[in-house]
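Class, carefully examine what follows:
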Amino acid sequence: MIEKQPITFNAIAIGLIWLFHVSGIIGILYGDSQWFVGATPLNLSLSFGLLLWTSRHEKKAYIIAFIAFAIGMIAEGLGVNYGLIFGHYNYGEALGWKIAGVPWLIGVNWSILTLCCGAIAANLADAFISRVFLGVGLMLLLDFVIEPIAPILDFWTFDGGIAPLQNYLGWFAIALPLHLLYQFMKVQIKGSFTHHLYLLQIIFFTLLLLQINTLQNAL
């Protein structure tokens, strides 16, 4: 007789984020695009809540999440209000409630990306410096994929319509100390939830990018 394995909360959490992201892709491209884009805050909030829950046995992850949120919000505030770090840009309405022009979910996103990319880097690389730069590189890769479609989704828009080189240098400058701290503190997030969440974000925005003409017509 085949012994049934119990379904773990981590497995349920992974299933939920796959369901939400796949539904979001289909809904934005082929359904009620405005509604699904408007549900972005719900998707991000759910992902963050599940990430914190699946990381609950590693209390240092909570410290990193708080620091990443605070640093991300400050850096973004300097960018939106003074054109510092990332360049001149403004946030749209799709990401919800703002603090000094910056959606609070952007701070949440900095926390999500720092934890996910840090956890992946810790699993894939052995040397400290390799882990740090791999984590930073993973964050830059996702930003590179998102930037072309962010204005279409009403996430944010740079003056001139295109993200400047300063934006990517700014991401590097902010992500580097966060990943130095992550690896220095030897954060150990068990399970594969972080890997799935990062992969889903790459898939989500890459598919939207490949269907950018469809996306523009839908929105």
